[in-house]
Amino acid sequence: MSDVPHHNEDLLALAKEISMKDFHQPFLHHCKYNSRLKSVGGRYLLTTHDIEINWHYAHKVGMNGLIDTIKHELCHYHLHLAGRGYRHRDQDFQQLLQKVNGIRYADREALPSRCYRYEYKCQSCGAKYLRKNRINLKKFVCGKCHGLLSLVSELGPNHG
């Protein structure tokens, strides 16, 4: 059994605690699990100022990984509310993340891998493209050289 909070109320309490301890500022909005998140560990919502955490990811990485993810999202939160650079590329964000020992990226091993079923190749430059769904070869061309694409192979349903 994982040691992470199982309820949104406990997750919110943890976010408030981290905010006061590491950022010395209160977290005044909501922090909740979102089980529909698939490709990220968490996200900060600019319009509502809420934080959502990937439930599956949190239970795979445990308490330390969850704390690191919350720190990352709190960096977005506090910088956005302060009117400073809150994006990943901004120096303010990178400096604050380093100061609080947050993580820059989610642990890819803990996120579900993408399932690609089709492999396409450009006939001109040889660029390869993996896709989950079939694409219309009459409509789409290579993004690098605008050459024609061809289906190389149809991969199994669980190929990542």
Describe what this molecule looks like in 3D.
This protein is 33% helix and 16% strand. The longest helix has 28 residues, at 55-82. The model has no long low-confidence stretch (mean pLDDT 91). It folds into 2 domains: 8-99, 2-Layer Sandwich (Zincin-like); 118-154. The protein is elongated, with a radius of gyration of 20 Å. Helix 1 packs across helix 2. It has a 3-stranded mixed β-sheet with strand order 1-3-2. The protein starts with 7 loop residues before the first helix and ends in a 6-residue tail after the last strand. The chain has helices spanning 8-23, 55-82, 91-99; strands at residues 31-34, 42-44, 51-54, 118-122, 128-131, 149-154. With 160 residues, it is of the alpha+beta class. A hairpin with a 6-residue loop joins strand 2 (42-44) and strand 3. It is built from 3 helices and 6 strands; from the N terminus they run H-E-E-E-H-H-E-E-E.
Describe the protein's topology.
Layout: H1 8-23, E1 31-34, E2 42-44, E3 51-54, H2 55-82, H3 91-99, E4 118-122, E5 128-131, E6 149-154
Parallel strand pairs: 1-3
Antiparallel strand pairs: 2-3, 4-5, 4-6
Helix pairs in contact: 1-2, 2-3
